[in-house]
Amino acid sequence: MNASKIRAKTKILTKISRMYYMQNMSQNDIAKELKIGRSSVGHYLSEARKLGIVKITIVDEKDNFRNSVLENEMIQRFNLVDCFITDDKDGTISNHLVDYLDDVLPYKGILGVGGGFTTYNLGTMLQNSFKRPNLSIIQLNGFTNDFEETSITRLYASALDSKPLFLPSPLLVKDIKSKIALENDPSIKTTLSALKKVDTIITGIGCNKTNDNAKYLKAYDFLDIDSLYKRTIADIGFHFFNEKGEFPIEEIEEKIIGISMKDFLATTRRIAIVYNSKKANVLKVALKHHIINIAITNTNTAKAILDLD
């Protein structure tokens, strides 16, 4: 980016920051005045904080529910778009997270929602969120025999008054020929096309040690589960990665029905919710290698991540 573009970008970031922090304008009002999307305002404010245009000091009061010190350290250490850390216990999600997501989740376009129990539990808490009738909620992957990702998609769409986009397909197929046939089915093809337009993703992370998602793959007899465990540490949407942030399990990557990792990594906001300190290492890998760029977690997990680094 040349000097003139940098100056122009700094000017708009400064303008939006002054409108929000000094003129007390809401993000909705700023969006209307500047004729941009509300989610863009939130993104610009996050970028302004990241670049040091805005420096926020939070007094450590008793009722402060966010750990801003850890948030800033995580953002700087892993070059994150944003970070949200509370003192919630492992496995517990407070309503403060719902308030935060109201500022982060888009109001239009396509939101991809991953599977997992943490993602599902959050969906049950979104009933009082701002409604988003111009937003579509899309299922990222086909379903397993034991856990239907369609139920999570439907839950989020109902809570946000958004349009659900389902992927009526199994998670994996046995061979490439079957995959091609399924992907050419009109109902599946429409959803797969929409997956390429996803701008924001919210998902959990499966950890091999806690046996989150790998257990669902035992039904596929063409997979070597022992090899999968040895070669990877965790997965996002059944895309398994190793300590280097690589996705080495080709027999899954080439046969999965759903969003590809290339398309996943092309999305602007890749949000992971991890409220389990036992997953500190896998979240750290996902952040370090920029698989995820917005972390939502608790104090114990964040401290464990920083201690590991």
From TrEMBL:
Q: Which residues cross the membrane?
A: none
Tell me if Transcription is a UniProt keyword of this record: yes
What terms describe the molecular function in GO for this protein?
carbohydrate binding; DNA binding
Q: Where is the Sugar-binding domain?
A: 65-306
Q: Which InterPro entries match?
A: NagB/RpiA_transferase-like, RNA_pol_sigma_r3/r4-like, SorC_transcr_regulators, Sugar-bd_dom_put
> Which keywords does this chain's UniProt record carry?
DNA-binding, Transcription, Transcription regulation
The text of the family note is: Belongs to the SorC transcriptional regulatory family.
PANTHER family registered for this protein in UniProt: TRANSCRIPTIONAL REGULATOR LSRR, TRANSCRIPTIONAL REGULATOR-RELATED
Q: What is this protein called?
A: Sugar-binding domain-containing protein
Native organism is Vallitalea pronyensis
